[in-house]
Write a structure and sequence with these properties.
The chain is an alpha/beta fold. The protein contains four helices and four strands. The protein folds into two domains: about 35 residues; about 120 residues, Zincin-like. Helices cover about 50% and strands about 10% of the residues. A hairpin with a 2-residue loop joins strand 2 and strand 3. The longest helix is centred in the N-terminal third of the chain and has 32 residues. Bound molecules: zinc ion.
């Protein structure tokens, strides 16, 4: 009698675990294959407003750059900034967004925004692949929490993008 109950108990545990695994799988599948959840878009939009407010305060003007969220960025880079024919665009990597959203909000958006702003002001330098002292100060003035260069990553693109966005 006792062992029968135990058996049922374990069976229930296995079924419940299976349901959770399935749910998790479904959630990550639907995150990958669907447009970004509204809550994520809202957090990105709010942070952009915060960066623009810092810009207004510390530079006396505000300029908005397009932010494109894409899963086409190769590898696990958080984001990158491209400057092509005078067009400045910021890209954020959808593939790492779910696990690194707080970092993307606190650090990556101001990081890429300061690259974009220095391109706009024609003050980008090649020092440290674009991470000059001026870049770091700019990143801090835009409210960046972690204004360091990404390890071993090149995320400034000065020519044609190495991937297709759509
Ligand atoms: Zn950078």
């Amino acid at each position: 009698m006792f062992s029968k109950k135990l058996e049922l108990f374990f069976l229930a545990v296995i079924i419940i675990a299976g349901v959770f695994l399935g749910l998790n799988y479904y959630r990550s599948y639907s995150f990958k294959h669907n447009p970004l959840p509204k809550e994520y878009l809202q957090r990105i939009a709010n942070k952009e407003q915060d960066v623009l407010a810092h810009m207004q305060k510390n530079f006396g003007f505000r300029i908005k750059f397009p932010i494109i969220i894409t899963d086409k960025i190769p590898g696990r880079l958080y984001g990158l900034t491209s400057y092509e024919n005078g067009h400045i665009t910021i890209f954020l990597n959808k593939k790492v967004m779910k696990e690194s959203m707080n970092y993307i909000i606190d650090s990556v958006i101001p990081h890429e925004y300061s690259h974009a702003l220095l391109f706009y002001l024609h003050k980008n330098s090649n020092e440290n692949d674009g991470h000059s002292k001026l870049w770091q100060q700019t990143c801090q003035k835009l409210g960046g929490k972690d204004c360091r260069q990404y390890v071993d990553q090149k995320e400034i693109i000065l020519s044609k993008l190495p991937f297709r966005v759509q």
